[in-house]
Specification:
The complex is a heterotrimer of chains A (329), B (449) and C (323). Chain A is an alpha+beta fold. Chain A starts with a helix and ends with a helix. In chain A, strand 7 and strand 8 form a beta hairpin. Chain A has three domains: 56 residues, 3-methyladenine DNA Glycosylase II, Chain A, domain 3; 92 residues, Alpha-Beta Plaits (2-Layer Sandwich); 88 residues, Alpha-Beta Plaits (2-Layer Sandwich), CATH 3.30.70.20. The radius of gyration of chain A is 27 Å and the shape is elongated. In chain B, 29% of the residues lie in helices and 19% in strands. The radius of gyration of chain B is 21 Å and the shape is globular. In chain B, the strands form four sheets. A six-stranded mixed sheet of chain B has the order 1-14-13-17-15-16. Chain B has a four-stranded antiparallel sheet with strand order 2-8-7-4, with no helix packed on it. A four-stranded parallel sheet of chain B has the order 11-10-9-12, with helices on both faces. Among the domains of chain B are: 159 residues, Rossmann fold, CATH 3.40.50.11540; 76 residues. In chain B, strand 13 and strand 14 form a beta hairpin. Chain C has 323 residues and is mainly alpha-helical. Chain C folds into two domains: 122 residues, no CATH class; 158 residues, no CATH class. Chain C is 59% helix and 1% strand. Chain C is built from 14 helices and one strand; from the N terminus they run βαααααααααααααα. The chains are: A alpha+beta (329), B alpha/beta (449), C mainly alpha (323).
């Protein structure tokens, strides 16, 4: 009994002694830190994805608190709402950014883009890209070894075994940009996120000449420029044999989709326009399209107008976009 | 017997074609001559579609100091100057020439007569080498005139001739030494004169006793030239390894160069090309290519004009077997696997190696068992397992501190790994990334000064 | 193009020495000792070894099948090696269920918890043995006498190390020939010193291991024993008998050749390996001379295993061109 008591007392005494020592040590070596950093860190999503450019959310929080001007800082995961909340907490002006989503711009599926050789090295796009053209004849297309999948901390990109291409889950994607950096072929682009995950984009980044593209892949952009002619908003440019749809100017009118001879322009979340009826296409489109229907006749002067209209658009963009489907249905 | 101080492996030699004399490949009908056949800036095309050219005529001029001239390997008409896929399927600027006859440009002496005496000065020799567009023909394709232009403040002490040919399968240098020994030794004396040294060593691995005997006998009548037999061990032909094996001096880690220990290293084929350029005004338009592989009917050593399609060489060796194949531009340790067999032979192509069946396919990788064989095999004293792991984790600071830039990409680590891990695949990627980081750091630091 | 070409980065040559071949070579190197042990202790040896191997392979299979994702790796023979090594650390008379428990600790706790082959910081067979030694001290230290025991009655069931430690006999009390040929009580693997040396030569010939670690351990032990004897004022024949006795008796050979050279639990550089080996030799001798246990090899190896990450961090290979 005595032994037991002695043991317990000794342990208690040891515990108290250690606690006292620890208390003084903690006092002595305390690091003074702005308590707001902790608060801001709590408001951030806590994904530590590095999408903001810092190593983790703590680094971002530190910068947000310490910098007077935080307009150059943005958390792509938390988005505008999160940044607004933090800005109001800190009494600073937040950066505004529209929501974006990662978009894979390659349509070279196994079926459309035949494999010409078998890669046997380390399963990494970066390694394969530094070695050679890839398993297909296209030097620009997706290599299919999933560096983007490995880079994604949100499980938003998956490899589709049927197509051999990565697919983005727009609901999980936070536009942190990790996959964009990971892709050695620069195929993935952060594009404006439309409601209901709608999208129209050129699903090809090949700068090769048309004939070369055709030989390697049946779904590539051949730079024919048909889409440019049909676009009423000046949203499409063709450079280096490659069409690009500017997401800021595009109004999802879908006319280019039907024009594309190889199907390189992809349409997501919407039905395509009915084929062929060329005249009824214009009246069916949204009001913005009607405005620009006049543009065709007076190209130069009107182009400026469309740019202005496009510039004015952001405020009204969302309602306009939601209107489009309701008119259709 | 001399050898380098650490690491190394000894893969099966498989020198299938070492007894086959050099044969001249019939001239190709069409050649594609890439503008970038060397390290540094690509050459600038001096001809356009429709131009008639003579063999040996300058068709592309060095783009900068670190670049090399390119000459027409055949006479004929330029049909295109356009993007053509190279061996890796990547599109490169090439000059396409349709051959007509075999007319040579004036001033080129194509005879076999040996010209021993060279009365030119160092500058004149280097100028002729530059004019002839000579680059390192062992595979690195470093412009030779750059190598011979000793930077101010540095002093060359000896010339080392690389006759090691440590890559398995390849025999082109071996045949060159046997059949053009005298010319090579004259080439050595020219190189000695160019860099102003009195001593030259010809390093030859001990698996080529005939070449050692032949060159030793010839070198006896050329003062200062000495043949050094070396123990058979890969990668003895690596520049730094060869210097260490012959002189015992180790080149410090990058950015130090061989000249920092007073050595200038040249391959034997390059030395032969130097002899021809200086004594015969012959530009670099042809080279000996070993076409080899266990599955080829007739492995051969072929004297080939630059720009000849690889497929033509394979045909000459009996054609590609009807099986799963890996066609390698170079030897099996450092060569690059090809996807496009219509792509041309270039200045750095010392061999075409064909692997079939089990040799062609990599075995399935399992997990690292920490056997440390890669560490023991690394000739640069690095830790490949660690570099590979840290590269996969993108820990660039860590791989840089672990001296990844010293890696010579010899492949010893990966070829010795019992878990069949793609160690060098990753280390190479890590090295490229770290070099990029160092360059951008230098670029960012420069303006501040 | 008729042929579909295979493409990969260089090098295009791979060694024939796969992980499975290495592990198989280790098993082959252990066979002579198994044969000698069977001759010494009888068929019980085969029983214990078989149970240990089967249990180890079975545990590895079950854990990989039901708890790991990814391909099965039991075909790489590493579990067989662990099984044989574990049995070599046990007395021949051990009950079967203790062997199974030992196999479970070795595979499940010491190996698979860390991620399997190549990731375990401690030698699995030794963790199994030390666990059993602490959990079942009686069964683990009851040594059967050799079947054909002649001049060894003096030992009365104690291992040579224990006998010398407790002063039953002197280090010269057992002839070197008995120690070499295994004519003494002890665990399965430690008795047949000569057979273990045959295995060592085989492993060197097959380039599975290098000589640095085993030789350094044995030399360290011998030197330590010699110096200790000198300090205790010994002289004459004992000065060379004691070192010889220490490297021949007990688990010194088994540990030095087969346990300390385990790839994943030994340092990556030769220099580091030498430091590791000296540590093992010193700790073993400290335990043998002054510790409570007559044998300290397994504790010494496990303790030095713990230092391996540190050694790997600070002992780097000599870089080319760096002075």
């Amino acid at each position: 009994m005595q032994v037991l008591l002695f043991t317990i007392l000794t342990l208690c005494a040891l515990g108290i002694l250690s606690a006292v020592i620890l208390y003084f040590v903690a006092q002595k070596f305390r690091v003074e830190e702005d308590p707001r950093i902790d608060e801001v860190e709590k408001m951030l999503p806590g994904a530590n994805c590095g999408g903001c450019g810092f190593a983790g959310c703590r680094g971002m929080a530190d910068a947000l608190v310490k910098q007077d001007d935080i307009s150059n800082l943005f958390c792509p995961v938390g988005g505008g709402d999160c940044m607004k909340a933090i800005a109001s907490y800190l009494g600073k002006a937040a950066a505004e950014k529209q929501p974006e989503v990662a978009t894979v711009r390659c349509g070279g599926t196994c079926e459309k883009r035949p494999r010409t050789n078998e890669y046997n090295g380390a399963r990494s796009c970066a390694v394969a890209a530094s070695l050679y053209v890839g398993e297909t004849g296209c030097a620009y297309g997706c290599l299919g070894f999933g560096d983007c999948v490995a880079a994604c901390t949100f499980d938003a990109i998956r490899m589709n075994p049927q197509t051999g291409l990565p697919e983005v889950d727009p609901d999980k994607c936070t536009a942190c940009g990790a996959c964009v950096k990971a892709c050695p072929k620069k195929i993935i682009e952060l594009r404006k996120k439309w409601p209901k995950n709608r999208a129209v984009y050129v699903s090809c980044v090949s700068k090769d000449k048309g004939a070369v593209v055709m030989k390697a892949c049946k779904a590539g952009c051949i730079g024919c420029g048909k889409c440019v002619k049909v676009c009423s908003f000046g949203a499409i440019i063709v450079e280096n044999n490659l069409a690009y749809i500017d997401p800021q100017k595009c109004k999802l009118c879908r006319k280019c989709v039907n024009e594309c001879p190889t199907g390189a322009i992809r349409l997501v979340g919407m039905d395509p326009l009915p084929k062929e009826p060329k005249t009824p296409a214009a009246p069916k489109a949204a009001p913005a399209a009607e405005k620009s229907a006049a543009v065709k006749s007076a190209p130069v002067a009107a182009k400026a107008e469309t740019v202005k209209a496009a510039a004015a658009a952001p405020a009204t963009e969302k309602p306009a976009a939601t209107q489009t489907p309701s008119k259709e249905s | 017997m001399k050898t380098f101080p650490m690491g190394g492996v000894h893969p099966s030699e498989n020198k299938l074609s070492s007894a086959k004399p050099i044969e001249v490949l019939p001239l190709p009908e069409v050649v594609n001559v890439p503008l970038a056949q060397h390290i540094g800036a690509p050459a600038v095309a001096k001809v356009a579609k429709g131009d008639k050219v003579l063999a040996g005529q300058l068709i592309a001029e060095a783009g900068s100091f670190m670049s090399a001239n390119i000459h027409a390997p055949v006479s004929g008409t330029v049909t295109a100057v356009d993007l053509v896929p190279n061996g890796q399927g990547l599109r490169q600027m090439m000059i396409t020439i349709k051959r007509e006859g075999d007319e040579w440009a004036e001033g080129i002496d194509r005879s076999e007569t040996l010209v021993r005496e060279c009365t030119l000065s160092s500058q004149e020799i280097i100028a002729r080498i530059k004019e002839a567009g000579i680059v390192g023909m062992g595979g690195a394709t470093f412009p030779t005139h750059v190598k011979l232009s000793i930077p101010a403040g540095k002093k060359a002490e000896c010339v080392i001739i690389n006759g090691v040919e440590c890559e398995p399968y390849l025999t082109s240098d071996h045949r060159m030494m046997l059949e053009h020994g005298e010319e090579i030794v004259v080439g050595v004396t020219i190189l000695m004169k160019a860099v102003g040294v009195e001593r030259a060593y010809i390093g030859i691995e001990n698996n080529k006793p005939d070449a050692i005997a032949h060159l030793t006998q010839i070198a006896a009548s050329y003062p200062g030239v000495e043949v050094v037999p070396l123990k058979v061990r890969y990668p003895q032909g690596g520049e730094k390894q060869l210097i260490a094996a012959v002189t015992g001096r180790q080149v410090p880690p990058p950015p130090a160069l061989p000249i920092d220990v007073g050595a200038v290293v040249c391959n034997v084929s390059t030395t032969y090309a130097v002899y021809r350029a200086v004594q015969k005004r012959m530009p670099l338009v042809e080279r000996v290519v070993t076409v080899t592989g266990k599955s080829l009917k007739e492995p051969r050593n072929l004297l080939t004009r630059m720009g000849t399609p690889v497929a033509t060489l394979l045909e000459a060796a009996g054609g590609l077997p009807d099986a799963v194949c890996k066609v390698i531009n170079g030897g099996p340790m450092m060569g690059r696997a090809m996807v496009d067999l219509a792509s041309p032979v270039t200045k750095g192509c010392s061999g075409i190696t064909v692997m079939t069946g089990r040799d062609a396919e990599r075995r399935t990788a399992s997990q690292c068992i920490k056997c440390a064989k890669c560490v023991a095999a690394c000739p640069m004293g690095l830790e490949p397992y660690y570099l590979s792991k840290m590269t996969q984790k993108k820990r660039w600071d860590e791989v840089e501190a672990s001296m990844i830039t010293s890696c010579i990409e010899c492949g010893c680590c990966q070829s010795t790994c019992p878990a069949y891990l793609p160690l060098l695949d990753w280390v190479r990627l890590g090295k490229q990334t770290v070099m990029g980081i160092i360059r951008s750091r230098a670029a960012a630091g420069a303006p501040k000064k | 193009m008729a042929n579909k070409l295979i493409v990969s980065p260089a090098p295009h040559v791979q060694t024939a020495q796969s992980t499975a071949r290495i592990m198989r070579d280790v098993v082959i190197a252990l066979l002579p000792a198994l044969v000698v042990s069977t001759v010494v202790f009888g068929a019980d040896v085969l029983r214990v070894t078989a149970i240990s191997v089967v249990a180890c392979v079975a545990f590895e299979y079950l854990i990989q099948k039901f708890m790991f994702r990814g391909p099965l790796t039991i075909s790489n023979w590493s579990a067989v090696v662990t099984g044989v090594l574990l049995s070599f650390n046990l007395p021949a008379s051990i009950p079967w269920w203790i062997v199974v428990i030992g196999a479970f600790v070795a595979i499940a706790v010491a190996k698979m918890t860390f991620g399997g082959l190549g990731k375990n910081p401690f030698n699995p067979a030794l963790v199994g043995r030390v666990f059993l030694l602490i959990a079942y001290p009686v069964q683990m230290t009851t040594w059967p006498m050799p079947v054909r025991s002649e001049a060894l009655d003096a030992l009365s069931g104690a291992t040579p190390l224990a006998a010398v430690k407790h002063g039953i006999v002197g280090p010269d009390g057992l002839g070197v020939q008995h120690l070499l040929l295994g004519n003494m009580p002890g665990s399965l693997g430690e008795v047949a010193t000569l057979a273990l040396l045959v295995g060592f030569v085989y492993l060197l010939w097959r380039r599975v291991i290098t000589w640095h670690i085993p030789v350094t351990i044995l030399v360290t032990m011998a030197v330590f024993a010699f110096v200790a004897a000198l300090c205790e004022g010994e002289s004459g024949a004992v000065l060379w008998q004691l070192p010889l006795f220490h490297i021949l008796a007990g688990g010194a050979m088994l540990g030095a050749i087969f346990m300390a050279t385990d790839y994943s639990t030994s340092p990556m550089t030769v220099k580091g390996g030498v430091i590791f080996a000296v540590g093992i030799g010193v700790i073993t001798m400290c335990i043998r001379l002054w510790g409570a246990y007559p044998e300290g090899m397994s504790f010494a190896i496990l303790l030095m295993n713990a230092c391996v990450p540190l050694i790997n961090k600070y002992v780097k290979p000599k870089r080319f061109g760096v002075k």
